Amino acid sequence: MCGMSQPSQNRSSQPPARPDASMSLLTHVMDNSLDEGYAEAAARREAAGAAGLPRTLKAKLGLAAGLVVAAAIVTLGAAETRLSAPVLAKERQELINRVERADRRADVLEKDVDTLREDVAARQRAALKQHGGDQAQLVALLSGATEVRGPGIKLVVDDAKGSAAEGGGPRENTGFSDTGRLRDRDMQRIVNGLWQSGAEAVSINGQRLTSLSAIRAAGDAILVDNRPLVPPYEVLAVGDKGRLGTAFQDSADGQYLHVLQENYGIRYSLSAENEVRLPAASSLTVRTATAAEPKKGAS
Length: 299
Hints:
By secondary structure, the protein is an alpha+beta fold. The protein is about 50% helix and about 15% strand.
């Protein structure tokens, strides 16, 4: 028994082994969650900040300075606007006054033109009656120099419902666009059809047509002798009320108007009237004149 060796007493002095001793890498990560590089960078920032102001205070001062600059800019802009507002308002009012004065002057000039045109037309009609001989009344009637009353027809033509000024329709052509609106070329065909059907005198919206009248377009507006017309268009024609309407509807131009109604929504109505009244033409332009030869025996 004496020969058996006893266990060494040094084992009791060693610390017991950790249960996770075999997981050294995981243990290191858990004990040192902050990477060494991050720790060094944080230490450098702390060392640099110790010599100056804290970062948060710098940010506050920078923000305050920016707000001061912005407030100064806004204040200066408001002051400048306040100073310039009366000047702009004065200039605007002056422009408005100039436009209003120009409009009033244009209205006066337009009235003067209408008065002079009526005076010229009256003088032309008087001269026509005085020197026209036995056929003076017929000449005045055919030339549009006198007012006309008598039986006839009334044709009212209007654009399609909901028509607009934009183009792109199937009737689009050079210089024209179809959106259900009546065009000057359509009105030309209507008037020519009435003449061919036996009309003795024709007017459109109170504008008497003569052999010198022109139907043209200006944008989407129809002009008769350079005067714009507004739809609906009321076309009055003097003639045999029983035959004139039927002859027009059976003509090629009447069929053309029917096609506009069926295919493009153009609206129209035709009615026979016991009496229609057509005004005299606003002005007659004399292009040529020939002196009358004196009668034999006249002094």
